[in-house]
Fold this protein.
Amino acid sequence: MSCPTALTIAGSDSGGGAGIQADLRTFAFHRVHGMSALTCVTAQNTVGVQQVDALSPEMVAAQIDSVISDLGVQGIKTGMLLNQGIIEATVRQIENYELQPYLVVDPVMVSRSGAQLIDDLAVEVLSQHLVPLAILVTPNRYEAQILSGQEINTLEEMKKAAAIIHEKGAKAVLVKGGAMPQELRGVDVWFDGEDWEILKTKNVETKNNHGTGCTLSAAIAANIALGNHLKSSVEKSKQYLTTALEYALDLGKGSGPVGHFFPLNQDS
Ligand SMILES: Nc1ncnc2c1ncn2[C@@H]1O[C@H](COP(=O)(O)OP(=O)(O)OP(=O)(O)O)[C@@H](O)[C@H]1O
Ligand SMILES: Cc1ncc(CO)c(N)n1
């Protein structure tokens, strides 16, 4: 039996809510074979990130070599890339294997709780060298502020930031509204250079929202691997994420993980 494959280039979250753990669960939900190139290990839980250790850029590149040369790939997402060396290694491999048509970049820099997840130096390299290769880049409010150099408090400012980030070369941009004020929470702005779309779902009232961004970008990569067009991949993934958020798990003392396999949760 053949099966589409998707790759996450991202960090590990020991608490299982975000990072490769969320990505691989999301791939599995979509019946896509999940593969991973691990960039770093975080000691992390629902409350925060306690410690981080990086893998070497060579090891990140080697993992990408291993999976691409043997299994092939139809959808890719990047998550927490941590430092300049890892970002540069990722950029080289994307270019070597001409993986740009499959690449979704979640420019993980600052978590919604405000924790910095990437070195200062790395921000510039990510913005200048990785973002331009992507078919889609999915910044949250804070990341969009950094990438666009503008403050974002309103829907108009989300749209303006999306246009500025699009100028950097990404084919499309989705500015996510999870960290926006209440009335805009759950509202994301899509821009592909021609069309705008405001993706709006209800604001799900829950403190258990750990891994929303990872889950959304992994679902988009899975939908691309399944052969869906980019825009419809984004729309389907937004629906998936919203339901997963409604079935989020009340675990830990902080923000619990979203419920990736919500139909199973429903039965139990
Ligand atoms: N309370 C909410 N209700 C509905 N949708 C939400 C809510 N919070 C976040 N989302 C949605 O979750 C997705 C991820 O957005 P968010 O801004 O949380 O990303 P993020 O900060 O990268 O996530 P992470 O917590 O993984 O770092 C977006 O589609 C956003 O609209
Ligand atoms: C490993 C990892 N990747 C991404 C995020 C962003 O949510 C996180 N908290 N941890």
Q: What stands out?
A: The chain has a mean pLDDT of 94. Residues 18, 111-112, 140, 176-179, 185-186, 188, 201, 203-204, 209, 211-214, 216, 238, 241-242, 245 surround adenosine-5'-triphosphate (ligand 1) (CB under 6 Å).
